[in-house]
Amino acid sequence: MTYPIPEIAVENISVTYSNTRLALYNTSCHVKPGTITALVGPNGCGKSTLFKSIMGFLKPTQGHVTIAGQSVQQAQKKQLMAYVPQADEVDWNFPVSVFDVVMMGRYGYMNLLRIPSQKDRRLVMESLERVNLVEFRHRQIGELSGGQKKRAFLARALAQEGKIILLDEPFTGVDIKTEKSIIDLLVQLRDEGHTILISTHDLASISTFCDRTILLNRTVLAEGYTADTFTEENLVMTFGGLPVASLEKLSSHYQQQPNSLEVDK
Predict the structure, then answer these.
(1) How far from chain centre, in Å, is Cα 75?
(2) Contact yes or no for 39/214 (Cβ under 8 A)
(3) pLDDT of 65 above 70
(4) What Å distances lie between residue 238 and 102, 184, 200, 251, CA to CA?
(5) Which domains does the chain have, with CATH numbers?
(6) What pTM did the predictor assign?
(7) Nearest to 160 by CA among 52, 63, 76
(8) How far apart are CA 28 and CA 215, in angstroms?
(9) How far apart are the C-alpha atoms of 60 and 54, rounded to whole Å?
(10) pLDDT at 252 over 70
(11) Cα 24 vs. chain centroid, distance in angstroms?
């Protein structure tokens, strides 16, 4: 029996920052094509670090990431991935219109002069329509509400036409109505063939729309179908932290025996 190549394959990666802080240890997970997968864990558990490793913004200390069987660099050149960042990663005071933010999703298709084509403009307008922001297209991005800002960056991801979309904490700072509209759009995109990875520490709605779940706390503790993975035992283990004496001990262990860590359940 043959199995489809995972859209995202993370194989035994570890990430250590320059201050020797170990952010991820021996982390492996797979995101299946045509699914919505939740990456779940407490604040500071390594979700954003894993996202940055998948996007190629960070280079793992060990291990590797492949996108649809290709290197991250190849996937970037082919515009396979689109990224919706956390709000605190964006300079909201930078003077740029909503239309121009969404147009940034087309930069990978333009020449050095970045002169948009008729197709670029059409895709930007279509993306704005899908997130109900057409009437705000000339407004400065910093003038939007929290939910509108999230939708603007989701429109940028749509304009990029990436088959894989990563969303880092998209529900932080948005109201229930906006959260529902984002979820409805993500489900539509999945049904159209997109693969979606969403990081969150909000457990309330995951089981209602996420096909699969990855539980993370410095390493992957469990992954699989949401109904099987989203159990009380697994959540207690994840949000209680890794059962090791201290992060310093883990960092020392990593330096000496990078493949021998065991997580007791």
Answers:
(1) 15
(2) yes
(3) yes
(4) 36, 27, 13, 19
(5) 1-80+163-173+187-265 (3.40.50.300), 90-161 (no CATH)
(6) 0.84
(7) 76
(8) 11
(9) 10
(10) no
(11) 16
